[in-house]
Write a structure and sequence with these properties.
Two copies of one chain form a homodimer. Chain A is of the alpha+beta class. The first copy, chain A, contains five helices and three strands, in the order ααβααββα. In chain A, strands 1-3-2 form a three-stranded antiparallel beta sheet. The first copy, chain A, binds a DNA duplex through α4.
DNA sequence: TTGGTATATACGTGTCAAGGAATATATGAG
DNA sequence: CTCATATATTCCTTGACACGTATATACCAA
């Protein structure tokens, strides 16, 4: 279990990460919100921490976990390779739809010129 | 193995996907470029095809595989949740670095004003 | 038909990680 | 100290899946 991809392959870990977007959370808070046994939460948090997705601050008996950005950027960079590819397709779809159903004259979202 | 995340957790599958960015490829071409046994290539391609990451066109005995965009967009949407979070951090880091080591007067990349 | 090339599938095996249960460690309160 | 709360760790079992080998299927050529 080394790559960022393997880490986020696990659904419960993704759930934890999403929870932490809003704000830092203690283990107990995560446990309650996700209705997950506490040892399971701790184990997933350990994986996330060792992988660099989160970090923990000590607060008395509690540990407050929060996101760290680096690994997300790494994922984003991999995806970026494909972005040019799929945006080509979005453009093609847009052109197609525009032909079927021409865009209205709205000032707000100027449509990209064809060619 | 249902989610897009599980599909791309496998390194060989990511390698195949990256290969296909440039252009469509036959199974044999992938096999040679990745130095991977042919049955392994076929099996990973099956997973990728059933998951909607690629599609195959028949060309005589060969199958030409190419990328499909939808699942990539799905991954991107998940990552997007975190983008606002990590860009906050990039900004903070930039401000920090600027304080340590003030930016030169270069016309090309105007630095964002602090506050 | 036979043979050759290209790709897919089936089967057996080993590894690895997720999950559950029990227990350990740490900190605070009284 | 003792008890309670919060979190971490250990042990075990089980299932999934990646891989290798062998074989099957598909298509073309002669």
């Amino acid at each position: 279990m080394e790559t960022a991809f393997e880490i986020i392959a696990e659904p419960n870990r993704r759930a934890i990460l999403s929870l932490l977007i809003t704000s830092q959370q203690s283990v107990g808070e995560i446990e309650r919100q996700l209705r997950m046994p506490q040892p399971m939460v701790s184990k997933h948090l350990r994986v996330l921490r060792e992988a660099g997705f989160v970090e923990a601050k000590v607060d008395a008996q509690r540990r407050l976990y929060q996101l760290k950005p680096e690994r997300f950027q790494e994922l984003d960079e991999w995806l970026a390779q494909f972005r040019r590819f799929w945006s080509r397709h979005v453009d093609a779809l847009e052109r197609h739809l525009d032909r079927i159903h021409p865009p209205e004259e709205t000032k707000k979202k100027p449509r990209r010129r064809i060619q």
